[in-house]
Amino acid sequence: MTPEQPTTTPRVSQAEINNILWRACDTLRGTVDPTQYKDYILTLLFVKYLSDVWKDHHAAYLTKYQGDEARAARAMQLERFQVPEHCAFDYLYQQRNADNIGELINIALDDLETANRGKLTDVFRNIDFNSEPNLGQTRERNTRLKLLLQDFADPRLDLRPSVVGGEDVIGNAYEYLISRFAADAGKKGGEFYTPGEVAELLARLLNPQPGARICDPTCGSGSLLIKMARQVGSQNVSIYGQEINGSTYALCRMNMFLHGLDDAQIEWGDTLRNPRLLDGENLRRYDVVAANPPFSLDKWGHDEAGLDRHGRFYRGLPPKSKGDYAFILHMIETTLDGHGQAGVIVPHGVLFRGGTEGKIRQRLIEENLLDAVIGLPGNLFFGTGIPAAILLFRRGRITNDVLFIDASRDFDAGKNQNRLGEAHMARVVAAYRRYETEERYAQRVTPAQLLENDYSLNIPRYVDTQEAESVISLIETQQEITRLEGELAAVRDQVHTYLRELGINVEA
User: Fold this and answer.
1) Do 253 and 361 lie in a common domain?
2) Is residue 395 helix, strand or coil?
3) What are phi and psi of 351, to 5 degrees?
């Protein structure tokens, strides 16, 4: 427990923990860019969690072994992670007035990595608590770090499992902060976080089963991978991901750890130029591949793609200024033959743009890989109001038809951002499972219809959402007009009568 903390701590709700953490951000807000202060806040939260769990388990062993410190210490060596004394939050808090507090935190992070080789190697390499450009000159930096440590020493912020009731609470708090940081950072924040409801919808649609190998080649902070793992409903799952941004890669590694996915293999690098998830010299293949790649990425690697040693672009080379199909082709090439499936979130231009994209789209349809096209509402994503779509691909399909779903009108409107409700997600998933035509919502489309439309996937071409116009009867309309004219004449006569009684000359 932290220095000011009482020996017993009442249980704190998820909402209160979230609020405490969000208020702690005020220490850095306004002086440090949101894309940077998230690293400091989330890293300290991670250290606080490790420290509190370590302390909790140590106390439990002391109770079990009747105060025998030596036996408790031996048992602690078998824990899923190690926290050296000078790396613990309590130690850092005690040193909060030190002139070199930033350096002490950096040392603690380095030694945490060393004590947990494999699980935490390189996680903190891009985070510097002694950075003058980010945190200010020495006096200002020390003040900010002291205040930040005091924020996290809040007696209510006790992250021990015996207090919060398990790992989900802190994992959820981490996800909460990541989503708030993404909203604060706007468009740039959207690059490392997929809105929770969209990730949940994609996870339900792909529905990975126990034993599945799941990959997100543009995994960001890992929210989509976590949703996929939860959808499996057991620990019998293998998680893989790759992320190009160094600090976001670190967040993803910590996020996996906090959600109990210690064995997740997350790589740092450019998926298109340098895929790191390999089996020998070949791309690793998966049961499920899911991603929310950056929309229409410019300079994605077009110049090198023609010589791609993995042969991912034999269906065509995506345009230099739009990398959407580069990610799609990579994902398809990493699905397992016979049953592998992929789900990708894309901007609507992917559905109908011509040129090489149109030819790639045609090849994917002719190979019977495209399973469904789902239109989402606009303004779901951080930093952009444009609507997106989900493309589902599946190997070993038993039909040549493609299901189109227009879910663009089903959402809960928000002030700054729309959201998908439970009923909206359930409707999409149910329609996909039925795989049948549903008036003004879903349409099962044949290959001949796709050919007739030159392989465009523009959803309004197939799903007519217009309300049917009612048939107008001229005879009934004339009868209604005659009736209304009669009523109007009667009202006029009554008004004239009232006016004459008042001595008003109606004829004038």
Assistant:
1) yes
2) coil
3) -75, -25
DSSP 3-state of 222: coil
480 Cβ contact partners less than 8 Å away, ≥ 6 residues apart: none
pTM: 0.85
Is the separation of the CB atoms in 95 and 108 below 8 Å?
Answer: no
pLDDT tens digits for range 85-127: 999 999 999 999 999 999 999 999 999 999 999 899 999 988 9
Neighbours of 150 (CB within 10 A): 15
Check whether residue 444 and residue 484 sit in a common domain.
no
> CB of 432 within 8 A of CB of 403?
yes
Measured CA to CA, the distance from residue 390 to residue 377 in angstroms comes to 11
CA distance 315 to 369: 13
CATH code of the domain in which 43 resides: 1.20.1260.30
Secondary structure of 150-163 in HEC code, one letter for each residue: HHHCCCCCCCCHHH
Q: Could you tell me the sign of the dihedral formed by the alpha carbons of 18, 24, 26, 29, in that order?
A: negative
Task: Of 178, 48, 47, give the one whose Cα is nearest residue 113.
Answer: 47
* Contact in structure between 1 and 55 (CB atoms under 8 Å): yes
Statement to judge: residues 212 and 331 lie in one domain: yes
Helix (H, G, I), strand (E, B) or coil at 127: coil
| 7 domain residue, yes or no | no
Strands (E), 377-425: 388-394, 402-406
| Contact indicator for 238, 263 with CB cutoff of 8 Å | yes
Q: Show Cβ contacts of residue 63 under 8 Å, excluding neighbours closer than 6 positions.
A: none
Distance CA 437, CA 443 (A): 4
Report how far residue 120's alpha carbon sits from residue 254's, in angstroms, rounded to the nearest whole number. Answer: 8
Predicted confidence (pLDDT) per residue in 17-74, tens digit: 888 888 888 888 877 876 777 889 889 999 999 999 999 999 999 999 999 999 999 9
Residue pair 188/383 in contact by the 8 Å Cβ criterion: yes
Of the candidates 93, 88, 153, the one whose C-alpha atom is nearest the C-alpha of residue 115 is: 88
Provide the domain limits for residue 166. Answer: 14-185
Total number of domains constituting the chain: 3
**CATH number for the domain that contains residue 252:** 3.40.50.150
